[in-house]
Amino acid sequence: MLNAKDIKDWLKTIGKNREWLAEKTLVSKRTVDNWITTNRPIPPAKLALIEKLMSGEEEIEFELPPDFEKQLRAMADEMHKNLEDMVSHILQITARAHQKRKAEAPSQQFTPVETFTAPSLEAQGRIIGNIAAGNLADGDTIPQDIRLYRELEKGEYLLRVNGHSMEPSIPDSSVVIMKKYTIPPIPKPGTIVQYHDERGVTLKKLVRRKNPETGKMEYTLHPINPDFGDIEPMDGGKISGIYVETLDRWEKA
Questions:
Q1: What is the chain's percent helix, strand, coil content, to nearest 5?
Q2: Which candidate, 119, 76, 74, places its Cα nearest to that of 249?
Q3: pLDDT > 80? residue 50
Q4: Based on the domain organization, do 226 and 145 belong to the same domain?
Q5: 188: which of 17, 43, 182, 204 lies 20 to 30 Å off by Cα?
């Protein structure tokens, strides 16, 4: 799998810098720095775009309206995403559409569209239960079949969020895609995780903080909503999943 060293070596080989890569992937240079110097996970859509650039595949050109940024910010607010996540979401959909068109008509060039069209709900999935976004609690395991805009990848599964502690990023009653996590070591701080112990299960951001009494660094489960408190210490439990994305559109199957 492509890693930070591969990207760094490739940039050196082609004589390009990180500013160039940031421009090509529609992110900030600071984000690229984090990918390369801190081994921060690269979102799948961005990784696919970088792999296309590295392979020399023809780049997708966009014809954007003058007020595109304003439209994009409005869409991000409506879908409860930050701007960078919204760009990644659109890139992922556009790349899939590009690949589909190339497969159907290899001799035709890809024709960019001027407006963003939401993907159809053609994929099938199953919400396997609820996850608390508050204090640790037992999850409801009644499944529900739904239609969504993409197939789930290996290890991914669907949960419904029950609670307000991760708002505004992940609203109450949202359906989220999680990915099974079994590989040590513990995920990097800042990752949103599914954690459970004898008290129940919860969805929280993983952070590290110094214990003022012992002076030791400890892992803590941190809510995004400031009205909620941390769950600490994170001791004796297990991280079983990592947050991938929130479904902005879905319907009952």
A1: 30, 25, 45
A2: 119
A3: yes
A4: yes
A5: 17
